[in-house]
Specification:
The structure is a homodimer of 217-residue chains. In chain A, 79% of the residues lie in helices and 0% in strands. Chain B binds a DNA duplex (30 and 30 nucleotides) through helix 1.
DNA sequence: AAAGTTAGCGAACAAGTGTACGCTCAATTT
DNA sequence: AAATTGAGCGTACACTTGTTCGCTAACTTT
């Protein structure tokens, strides 16, 4: 049971995936990806494609899965950076922007398929975003002592802002990218500031209510 | 100078634009839009297409322009309605969400081309977004007396949040859509609240500086 | 009324697409 | 050693795509 054959098959499967990734670019999105071109770059005949995937859609979903995995690795990395101390906001935004800069094609795929043509794709990307949000909520509740509801609202807003900024950074030069990162950090701080104010108000209201209640006794 | 001819031309031009809009859907994005199909639905020969547009790209850019304009007019209109009382934030977000629900195809086009395959498209959508932002900045500076820099930061964050929520609403049922709208209103208020707090702090700092300065005299 | 302009058409072309079919031949199993 | 499997290939087919090129016929200008 050497598995020479299975190994070879896995190898060309990877070649197909890599070829598809390579062909994803600013000018050439998933929608305009052709089976024949992918096969050509992978070094096999067009018809052999079907030995590995049933459809181009199946290949596409594989791509989204793989990109999602890469993104989750980013999140893990970002969490470690937070543990080492420093501003959670800045280090998160920095890490995110680094990922976008270093994995343009992948991030483009995620963005495109987020509002893309296939519902399954869209849901897959939405799932990835919700992971990002969930981690942020946990942090806000556990470390920053926010009420869960307020933390959710806040995390949602932050994820929206950061991903949107990431999208803009795709067409930016390094200088613009730095400015964009700085602006994003400040915007996230704006949200955090607003949430802090709301939480403070709520505490005050609760105190008043409690005082009124005591007065009624 | 009856202009019968010019009128007819304008009419088929509109027919082409409408046909393109009709063919845009959740499953069938701009990328997979075909000149021949558009021409067929518009009721003209494929070759006549070129009497009106040089490219499919030119048609697409027209679509982006038209939809952005429509959305902006709607929002301007809703902002004027605050004279009748009510929250400007709520009415703006409501209007926006209504537009998205009623013009799904158009909004999908904007979203898709925002991270799409053509740089020119991306810039066109970015231009639309910057229009939204600019109008919001004006409002924040003129009516709400924010410092320009802070207003810019705030407007940018708001536009990002609202558009991102609009994207999510595309795959939502009416109930989810209502919840999403409510959450978005609260998130925008969070940002506004944060901005107000920052502005207040800056004023305090300025006051202190002024006091120090007076003391030095 | 004559001349000029032009929106729209039909035929044709060169590419490119996905996919069905049967074959080969090396890896694997019996 | 013989039989089976299956990854990959080549041919072929039926489409669809964008675009070029004259042509007609209706509108517009002179």
């Amino acid at each position: 049971m050497t598995g020479i054959r299975a190994k070879q098959k896995e190898k060309t499967r990877r070649a197909l995936i890599d070829a598809a990734m390579n062909q994803l670019s600013a000018e050439h999105g998933y929608a305009s990806l052709s089976l024949r071109e992918v096969a050509r770059e992978a070094g096999i005949a067009p018809t052999s494609f079907y030995r590995h995937f049933q459809n181009m859609e199946e290949l596409g979903l594989t791509l989204v899965d793989e990109s999602g995995l890469a993104l989750r690795q980013l999140l893990r990395q970002s969490r470690q950076q937070i543990a080492r101390g420093g501003s959670i906001i800045r280090s998160s935004v920095d890490t995110f922007m680094q990922f976008v800069a270093g994995n343009t094609a992948i991030f483009r795929l995620l963005l495109q398929e987020r509002s893309g043509t296939s519902r399954e794709f869209r849901l897959a990307v939405a799932r990835e975003l919700s992971h990002f949000k969930a981690e942020l909520v946990d942090y806000l509740v556990d470390e920053q002592k926010y009420h869960r509801q307020l933390a959710e609202l806040q995390a949602d807003a932050i994820v929206r802002i950061v991903f949107s900024a990431g999208a803009d950074s795709l067409d930016s030069n390094p200088q613009e990218r730095e400015d964009l990162t700085e602006a994003t950090v400040q915007q996230v701080r704006l949200v955090a500031r607003g949430a802090a104010a709301v939480q403070h108000d709520q505490a005050a209201v609760a105190q008043v209510k409690q005082a009124n209640h005591r007065a009624e006794d």
